[in-house]
Amino acid sequence: MADTHAKIEDNPKILSGPVLTNSPNAVLSKTLLGRYNDLPIPADKILATYIWIDGTGEHLRCKDRTLNFIPKVPKDLPIWNFDGSSTGQSDGHNSDTFLYPRAIYRDPFRRGNHILVMCDTYKYNMEPTGTNHRIKCSEAYEKCKDDEPWFGIEQEYILLDSDLRPFGWPPGGFPPPQGPYYCGVGANKVFARDLVEAHYRCCLFAGVPISGTNAEVMPSQWEFQVGPSVGVSAGDDLWVARYILNRLAEEYGVIVSFDPKPVQDWNGSGAHTNFSTKKMREDNGIIEIEKAIDKLSKVHMKHIKVYDPRGGKDNERRLTGLHETASINDFSAGVANRGSSIRIPRTVAEEKKGYLEDRRPASNCDPYAVIDALMRTCILNE
Ligand code: ADP
Ligand code: MN
Ligand code: MN
Ligand code: MN
Known about the structure:
- The chain has helices spanning about 35, 135-145, 195-205, 235-250, 280, 285-295, 300-305, 315-320, 345-350, 365-380; strands spanning about 45-55, 60-65, 80-85, 95-105, 115-120, 150-160, 210-215, 220-230, 255, 275, 335, 340-345, 355-360.
- By secondary structure, the chain is of the alpha+beta class.
- It has two domains: about 40-130, Ubiquitin-like (UB roll) (Roll); about 140-380, CATH 3.30.590.10.
- The strands form two sheets. Strands 6, 7, 8, 9, 10, 11, 12 and 13 form an eight-stranded mixed sheet that branches. A five-stranded mixed sheet has the order 2-1-5-4-3, with helices on one face.
- A hairpin with a 6-residue loop joins strand 1 and strand 2.
- Helix 2 (about 135-145) runs parallel beside helix 10 and helix 6 crosses helix 10.
- The protein binds adenosine-5'-diphosphate and manganese (II) ion (3 copies).
- One manganese (II) ion binds near residues 154, 156 and 216.
- One manganese (II) ion (MN) binds near residues 154 and 223.
């Protein structure tokens, strides 16, 4: 049972970003900008938001530029740069860090022909930065393209109020125990559905293949799923979905936390990664699924190390063996078992084909690192 007297503020891990209480965003007028959004701007001017992962490996940065053409593919877009010494990606002496455009999405905030551009980052000498896991992932994907690896990622997260407590939780205490909140309906069970609905629609507009959403076990905890997406694009899709969520949350004046275990004794947040290859999806693909599980069983700790941005430290708090998780120290697999590392969904076992679910990745994982590890272990036998 949760200790109703413990203070959530005492949990230093709840927010891994900077601490700023009482964000003024919530009280800014949300309608004034409409007047300026209506201003006609020249039709040949395209606004592009370049997005990248910073030196924490878990937070996003962005900046905007004007283009004089409509880019069709990432290669049409200019390589750009930023001050890496301000993002933990270089020292001050050699701070120019480069942005390579990798994927284009429609911008749901500006609409029209304006775009979001997912980038990866390179140091002054054009070596990838320490948190650029995309490059390795895309190399792995190039090698196993013919196996058609698909990934569907379930992104769990919680919303915090500007006082850094879970949004809607009673001051100084806890809501009634978990039970009624998962997939809940009603003002006393789910909070901020408006934001979730806006996010769903923005993702569809942007071209992110969001496949669903649901309220989660802890009040103010939610999930959305992206995919199945093919290879490295699953990482692009998830990062852009996270960007859109954070941008929307700015407008609503709430904070998104991807911390994997925000509150002790309550369900944590994961990024279950559903994975299949062409062979797994064909008749009797269950044999391939079992082969993959056997390979995964031999390199459990290697995967745990890349399933959160702190080499397994974040997941230690979440993968306790309780709250629908398996222990971080043991590998296990089972049909319909939500207490195992790998779950084979019931329908997959019945149809003898489909996909497996890796339940270990933390909510703040870098999906490029996760799917890179899955492709290398299960397909490339590395
Ligand atoms: P859960 O029952 O674990 O909550 P969800 O319905 O939330 O499952 O998520 C299932 C995920 O599996 C979705 O992201 C979906 O896109 C993905 N998925 C479905 N089929 C496949 C497949 N063949 N390969 C990879 N991912 C898949
Ligand atoms: Mn789910
Ligand atoms: Mn879930
Ligand atoms: Mn799941």
